[in-house]
Amidohydrolase-related domain-containing protein
Amino acid sequence: MSSIDVDTIPPPGAWDSHVHIVDEDQFPLHPLHPFRPKKALLSSLQAFHRSLGIQHACLIAFSVYHTDYSSILDALSRLDKGRAVVCIDPSTISDEELQQLHDAGVRGIRINMRTRGDPLNKAAVIAAADRVRPFGWVIQVYIALEQIVEFAPLVPQIGLPVVIDHIGAPDQARGPGRLQPGYTELIDLLHTGQVWTKLSGTYRFPNLPDLDEYVADILRTAPDQVVWASDWPHSGGVEANPGGDRKKVQEYRKVDDAAFIARCRKWCRDVEGGTGEQLARKIWVENPRKLWQWDDDE
């Protein structure tokens, strides 16, 4: 096997910590879905993971379903090695429903402030954290890098592990990520040990001038709090739906996932030195096992 082939294979026992599934025929979208993605079935996800040598998945609530987690519960019942993060309405969900989700493999809730540009509702974030606190779940947030400035002071009050999607989602139109508002706050949060981030979605900002340095800083700061993710099936999101036509089915972006794995392995080598295998094993295997509370006996 050539070296390039080795570079495109994650370590044994690898996790993909951010994937979505959607099947509008079986699970209708929320009436206010911000865009209409084409089908992304569990069987397609499993085939994708087999092709890359990935053993475990964490399913993430798709914004088109809002707080309806029916599709994720269905998928978890058919997924041998997985976890999930859902969206909930903390004012209506019951303790029994939360226990059902926990037993099924849910280990977190997602708060999405970026897809629709929602403002930070501090009271709502704390209320959501309070509902899942007995279960020790994570609070996963999808926010723009600049939004972290306002979000950072709230983190100590949350009192649970916090996961920031897509390494903070810097805006490539604003120049180097390390010079953007929110970057210093992101690094400071990672230093606390309470906050994690996902090495994912870099295809959303491929022209960020300092992407290599930006990622290296994060890996050096928090090697034990970064998890790798493909962000499959690579939705265009609201950015790819500028006219607001929610009836038109949106195609997914074409992403070279094997090349992304290779680039992540190079980042690991650059930061750790040598083969970078210890850091690679952390972001693909050890860190997600800890974050998603996975035990080999399951």
About this structure: The first strand starts at residue 15 and ends at 19. The chain has a mean pLDDT of 91. Residues 257-272 form the longest helix (16 residues). The domain at 15-291 is CATH 3.20.20.140 (TIM Barrel).
